[in-house]
Amino acid sequence: PLYDASALVMLDQRQNKVMDVDAVLSGLPSDPTSIENQLQILRSRSLIARVIDKLHLDKAGPAKAVAPSLLSDAIDYVNPAHWFGGTASTKSKQQEAEDKRNGVIDGLLASETVTEIGRSSAMKITFRSPDPNRSAMIANAIANAYVDDQLNAKFEATQKTSKWLADRLQQLSRQMQEADVAVQQYKAAHD
Hints:
5 strands; 3-stranded antiparallel beta sheet; 6 helices; two-stranded antiparallel sheet; 16% strand
């Protein structure tokens, strides 16, 4: 048996703007293109990689990380590198670890489904696994990683805006001081 676990994520619809710096802290618009962009983020390898890191799925054995598939078994069988058992590996350990990680990412992506819910700005993340607890854990981890990603993006935007505002304030302060000096010089020169 396979078990599906789902988590729902809703796009932030608030439109917060700071002093006409357009869309710095704005919520995501709910047009079809923006929603599709968010669906692609939920299906991205980088988001799944963060889930793997958080849950340490690459440390588990292959059976623990992702249920084996007939396709992966067939590919392993057809791979000539496996035909000659004790031959020396041409791959470095780093490359093997990267290949293993990519395999775990591919397996998780194959078990993940992300869909838009009707005409709303909500998205449904579904994960399928032979273990119901694992399905729920990974579906929730994907949703949490997405929310963390969105919060980090807003935090970075806030930091950039704060830096821009501080730099602009400093620049305006210098201009005001220069103008004040010019006024004082004009008063002194023209009595």
